[in-house]
Specification:
Elements lengths: L10 E5 L4 H12 L3 E6 L2 H13 L4 E5 L5 H15 L4 E4 L15 H29 L2 E6 L12 H21 L4 E8 L5 H9 L1 H9 L9 H12 L10 E4 L7
Length: about 260
């Protein structure tokens, strides 16, 4: 049984929210009483995701947002505040993968594209979320790093660089804002049942099978498990948790 949170009168923002961990987290916030704004680069899909929540009786808005564009990140935060008057929680989840490549063969285009979304995108969202939370004197932000932010795996230079960077952003900003009533943390998911992982299982089956052998719990994680971790980090139950990079990986990093 999952904990029950009362986030009534609170406002949450989630990026990469059309599906997977993003939508699961948006839905969990909504079920807990929060008004939610869902951002995603896929406008049609994120509008459909928000419509699912409103059809279930929740307060939700979907908005197109390419987080690699700071102006769009700022507009997403502005829409949340304009519609709901405040911003209490943010889950900066949007991220992409690059095709696996030898470090000597990876293209600059792939490297730059991954950094633009995974690292600069979180920087841009967090920057504008913090402007609002600073004015309120309260808030909680969770950034999505990865198991790849804690360890290195072959063929993933661009991705791992970006996810290690997210942890650096998180820790530095957490120190700036803890005295001002805003808590910032990161989660580091392992291999989770999401559309991105499903694609990797199809295209890189042998590598993924080998990787899963190192996940002691013996199964994939679920998007809902990640959502519950985010909600806990945003809740009063985590009120003394600041600047952590929390592995949610079925024991992988316990090796």
């Amino acid at each position: 049984m999952n904990p029950v949170y009362d986030f009534s009168s609170k406002v949450a923002l989630v990026t990469g929210a059309k599906g997977g961990m993003g939508f699961a987290t948006a839905e969990a916030f909504a079920r807990s009483g929060a008004a939610v704004i869902l951002g995603d680069v896929d406008e049609k899909a994120v509008q459909e995701a928000a419509a699912k929540l409103t059809a279930a009786g929740y307060q939700a808005i979907g908005m197109a947002c390419d987080v690699s564009d700071e102006a769009q990140a700022a507009a997403l935060v502005g829409r949340a505040v304009g519609e709901f008057g405040r911003l209490d929680f943010a889950y900066n989840n949007a991220g992409i993968q690059a095709p696996p490549a030898d470090a000597a063969d990876e293209t600059a285009e792939d490297f730059d594209r991954v950094q633009a979304v995974n690292l600069r995108g979180i920087w841009a969202c967090m920057k504008h979320e913090l402007k609002q939370m600073r004015s309120q004197g309260s808030g909680a932000i969770v950034n999505c790093s990865s198991l790849g932010g804690l360890v290195g795996l072959p063929g993933r230079v661009a991705y791992h660089a970006s996810k290690h960077g997210v942890i650096g952003l998180t820790k530095s900003a957490a120190l700036d804002y803890a005295p001002r009533g805003v808590r910032i943390n990161a989660i580091c998911p392992g291999v989770i049942e999401t559309p991105m992982v499903a694609d990797m299982l199809k295209t890189q089956r042998a590598a993924m099978d080998e990787f899963l052998k190192q996940q002691p719990i013996g199964r994939l994680g679920t998007a809902e498990e990640m959502a519950q971790t985010v909600l806990w980090l945003c809740s009063p139950g985590a009120s003394f948790v600041v600047g952590v990079a929390l592995p949610v990986d079925g024991g992988f990093t316990a090796h």
